[in-house]
Amino acid sequence: MSDLIAVCDLEATCWEDGETQTIDRMEVIEIGCLLTDFEGHLIDEFASFVRPVQNPILTDFCTKLTMIRQEDVDNAPLFCDAMKALDIWAGGRNICWASWGKFDCKLLLNEQKRYGEEFQFLQVPHLNIKDAWRRSTRHSRNTDLYQALAFHGLEFDGVPHRALTDAKNTAKLLPFIPRANIVREMRAI
């Protein structure tokens, strides 16, 4: 079993509502990861912008939503290089990785498949914090991160839709999830 949790959040290329936004079209543009214990105490953090290849020019919608500028991604490492840096950061630690919901896991797996490389980070169990929290509090599947924080009297800190900020806010919920529920929700991917 894991000793630590790497709470991860991603930002991806995106377009105005109504345009096709499939996971196959999206590309990771930012990775934020927070290493915590099971109570959510910060141990270490990792952040990297990622240069998109299929859609290298960010849309105005994407820039407004994420506050990520074109120059941030233009000089960023490519996806495989960013993931190799994440592997080095996480390497040698007994971790599982976690995200709020399934989207980030699906996006990373899709990117891994697209580039035909396997990354150590994706070989460890994944924890869907949203499901673990929902089962612990008996909330509906439609509860978003803001509602989950508000349920515990917490506020979202920082700029939304930035990977490290979202990861930090997600980690705030770990103390409210019994360890047994966390362990029960870990899945091999």
Set out the fold topology.
Layout (H helix, E strand, L loop, with lengths): L3 E9 L15 E9 L5 E8 L10 H7 L3 H5 L4 H12 L4 E5 L3 H13 L10 E3 H9 L7 H7 L11 H9 L7 H7 E2 L2
Parallel strand pairs: 1-4, 4-5
Antiparallel strand pairs: 1-2, 2-3, 5-6
Helix pairs in contact: 5-8
In a few lines, what is going on in this structure?
By secondary structure, the chain is α/β, with parallel strands linked by helices. It contains 8 helices and 6 strands; from the N terminus they run βββαααβαβααααβ.
CATH architecture: 2-Layer Sandwich
Parts with pLDDT < 50 across at least 5 consecutive residues: none
> Approximately what portion of the residues adopt beta-strand conformation?
15-25%
Distance between the termini: 15 Å
Query: What series of H and E elements makes up the topology?
Result: EEEHHHEHEHHHHE
Physical arrangement of strands within the biggest beta sheet: 3-2-1-4-5-6
CATH topology: Nucleotidyltransferase, domain 5
Please give the radius of gyration in angstroms.
16 Å
Query: How many domain regions?
Result: 1
* Structure class: alpha/beta
Number of helices: 8
Which geometry do the CA atoms define?
A: globular
Largest beta-sheet details: 6 strands, mixed
Topology, number of strands: 6
Kindly state the percentage of residues in helix: 25-40%
